[in-house]
Specification:
Layout: H1 17-25, H2 30-39, H3 44-51, H4 55-67, E1 71-77, E2 82-87, H5 89-92, H6 95-106, E3 116-120, E4 132-133, E5 137-138, E6 144-148, H7 159-163, E7 168-169, H8 176-180
Length: 181
Amino acid sequence: MVKNMALGRDYATQACEIAHALTVVGERWTLLILRDAFYGVTRFNDFQTHLGMSRSVLAERLQKLEHAGISLRRPYQTAPPRHEYMLTQRGIDLWPVLLTLHEWGSERTPQGQRLHFYRHASCQSQLGPYGQCQTCGPVAPQDVEVVPGEGVTQNPADPVSRALLKPHRLLTPLSPAAAEA
């Protein structure tokens, strides 16, 4: 008989680099928060609305990313106090991981239609599976645009998704309110 065991929050018994990385980015929602940060989402409410997750879980995940040195929290308003969240270089270093997951997921979409793809902002060439521009070679994430694909919903409910109906350079702050105007 198997006893019902609660899942642990770490991989203390695993002496492995992957297990160590999973203690930081392996919890549910964390990779989607990172994806949104690459898209340029910086504000708590925009993360929460776009991801549809609870405020308490989002706050916990953002705090964990900050403590791990992956993101930086800084104030943008004092009354009431509000903060924005930006990726640090350590967070930007996760770009190849997210790109690889994106490509893997794109190959397995149920309808076979890509929701988004990435292209080199300078020459407009679509990136290959390892982030290489077929014309220019390796491309830093700051020089990449996320572009809506044929499978993207044309009338999304949330403002972040509506803002992403147009090409947008990664790591450039996304202003969903401006896209609404």
